[in-house]
Amino acid sequence: MNYRLLLLFHLFYLSRTIPLPHSEIAKKRFPDAIIVGVKKAGTRALLEFLKINPLVKAPGPEVHFFDKNFNKGLEWYREQMPETMNGELTIEKSPAYFHSKNAPERIKMLNPNTKIIIVVRDPVTRAISDYTQSSSKRKRLGLMPSFEEMAVGNCAMWLKANCTTKTRGVNAGWGAIRIGVYHKHMKRWLDNFPMQNIHIVDGEKLITNPAEEVSRTEKFLGLTPVAKPTNFGIDPIKKFPCVKKSDGELHCLGKTKGRPHPDVKLDVLQTLKEFYAPENKRFFQMVNQWFDW
Ligand code: A3P
Fold first, then answer.
1. Which residue ranges does the record assign to the Sulfotransferase domain (predicted)?
2. Which residues participate in the annotated binding site?
């Protein structure tokens, strides 16, 4: 494939142009770990919480190199990274990598030892969250069909949703549903990375017990955990955890996180639950980890 050659060329070029590492010099490095997904499962919260550890450094925006910006080349990618000293960890997060066909193979080619972090949550809640995000603009314009119509109804082809056939009563071709069939995407990651290089974060526990989930992730990254319950407080309005700074002030995620979800009809929730049950089971077996959804 062409991008293999491109990648090899860039790696050769970089090896010729990067000066030898010097322990005292801060420099931009490729990520040690990548939060690859899952979109709307709590990826931003995880990254913000990991940054409580002073050894964790991350670029501000999502980089989307291994899916959308790959043709910009490795030097562009490295340029997006923060400067780090030896011993500090660079972590990137681009949640669309999880369901990208090319990302796992491309990341492996750059560095097969990259640590892969995946936040998962109940795919039904995830789908509603995805819908809430994508409809927030259209709804204001009065153009968005209801979640129920999209998930189990006539869908809306003009939204680029493929809903020509239903699977167990669900429009499984609609992106918001398809992304939640985790095992299909997970297989590509396991084809490229051993399970010991992959860490699964429970997106629900990240809300109810952030200190524990963040500590587990710090350990996976080879860091001495610093996240403690006292590092967190609860947003009085949205009720989601926020980082508590040393002066007691709360640093909460922005207005695009923790949006109110629409009330979804119970029978549609049940149809979705039944649709996902066998898919979830396959995912749990694949990663040898069980969740209560
Ligand atoms: P909603 O806005 O639909 O509630 P991501 O960052 O991967 O896009 O995930 C966004 C989701 O993270 C939010 O979806 C929210 O449910 C969840 N989340 C988890 N912890 C959060 C936190 N501390 N603050 C805000 N949202 C959080």
1. 31-247
2. 40-44, 121, 129, 257-261
